[in-house]
Predict the structure.
Amino acid sequence: LMPTTEEVIAALEASGVSALLLTHPSYEGVTIDLVQVADYCRQHDIALAVDEAHGSHFPFLDDQWPSAIATPADIVTHSMHKYTGSLVQTALLHLPTGSRFTVEQVMGVLTLFEATTRSNLLILSIEDAIKRGFSEEGRHQFWQATWECDRLRSQLDGYGTVLTYDSQVSDPLKIVLKSDRVSGTELAELLYERGIDGEFADEEGVLLICSFNHTQNNFQFMRKVFAELALSLKQKAIDDVYSRTYFSRCPQITLSPQDAFFKPKEKRPLHQSIGRISGCCIKKVPPGSPLLIPGEKVTDWHLKHLSADIIVEVVRED
């Protein structure tokens, strides 16, 4: 979920914090008025770090989608491998104009985390991705991809709620498909059967991510699948998916994560660990949300959502 601009500023006014770490855009591609938030932080002496991991392609798009590096933020990070074509594990740390931090300060801190042997291959892949993105060909490819995505949305506008998209998503290369006939996970299965592999799905919708590497033939195939899928879904009864209420799980925390992490542990299959205290963290990727954390009691819920034979670490009872 992405808070609104007003919610972010209201939280800052009420908290009295000295720094703000903001993930923007969200994983699904929702954005807010980042310039307004950055201006507020600058006026109230609040350090602002923007994790633009899921917007690393924004610098290569039109001004309609401004990157955080063009705002009064103090630090901006980009996961280059996500959307710009560089190798996995590549990222950039930016100090936008007017940052309260100096290059010397950042380099001094980086020595605590960096390896002494840097990968020239990874560095070269970052440079290649930047050059490609800012090249005439690269900018045209990004423009072409955004244009094709707009064309897909225009097509979906003709299907009503049978097959539609989330209008809150402002990232031009992301489409969250929804339907009032099936859930998001069911919709993802129908897409997969027809040759489209979604990035992520939940009960409400399925996230599709397009890139500059998608060809016109790829987009033509997507339009064909959308048309076939809309026709098929139209034959189904309305499932009233939008009115469903979903409740977040309240995990049973028995120990603090720190205490559980440092206690002696043993490895056991999940189905033999019901009632035990977890000493490990299991995440679902994407989007990286933890399903089990250290200190949490293992329950039947975990057995339902994870493989019964998965090996987990639990706190020893002796």
Observations:
- The chain has a mean pLDDT of 92.
- The two ends are 41 Å apart (CA to CA).
- Residues 136-156 form the longest helix (21 residues).
- The domain at 257-315 is CATH 3.90.105 (Molybdopterin biosynthesis moea protein, domain 2).
